[in-house]
Design goal:
Rossmann fold, about 325 residues, alpha/beta, seven-stranded parallel β-sheet, globular
Length: about 325
Amino acid sequence: MKVLVLGGAGYIGSHAVLALREKGFEPVVLDDLSRGHRAAVIGAGLIEADLTAVDLAAVLKESECGAVMHFAALSQVGESVSRPDLYYRNNVAGGLLLLDAMVKSGVRYLIFSSSAAVYGEPSRVPISEDHPTAPVNPYGATKLAFEGAMRWYAHAFGLRYASLRYFNAAGAHPDGLLGEDHRPETHLIPLVLKAVLGDCPMAVFGNDYPTYDGTCIRDYIHVCDLASAHLLALQALLAGEPSSVFNLGTGRGYSVLQMIETARRVTDHDISIQLSPRRPGDPAELVAGSRLAGERLGWRPRYPELEDIVTHAWRWHRAHPEGYPA
């Protein structure tokens, strides 16, 4: 089966493309390369186009794709606060164009890259799928809005979907084929490793949270484990399983200071810290309850250890200090 991978030149999407090929699927990537990288598309055709400015129904028909994986969302929390217009236009309006195209072309299966940001500030940890959703930023709000649209389109038009709410995507392909290269970079692990490569201080935003060392706690999930979950979700839908929402994480949280200490061990470099004020909208602790993905999809993280995640990321960043080539 051919699978259209929207945003397949991005961090998680490019890893999903490799995972699809390994399982015998034929991925077709659509990406405008505004934030993705041509060099990250390995073993798949690339359609360079904007999700909101292309005839997606025609793309689906001409490519003969039978399913869609949707990673083509803007994803920077701070940017979403200052430019909600961009986020609603791309993540919600663009998503509706996709749903309409799927209905028009008769493609029924959709795997959506969602986020733990739909939960907002959690009232309990670990967070299960039945936790109340109350996003605290436009990014999370747009993810939740599209989940709602999928649910109603499924009810009205027979679409089948899996929405994967993952926590902190991290790491890189163990063989060094792919890595994380956002511009600007906002994720903790690559920022720490860039601090090592540049011999500069690492900013820590807030040390007064109600956690054991005062810094934020997050559940880091290896990007290859996320890719495998997308494959399992697709296979489940193809086998007749109902539409569902799944959390993806390891169920273990690590503080910012723990992450920095792990990076010190992996890189064998000292990392100086520069304390900065809290960033608006950063919850103190986000840890996943992923029992449902294990029970329904048979999903288990292959790389649950933080040291493995950082080691794989360090391997890629050390080999690509400037990121992907232009």
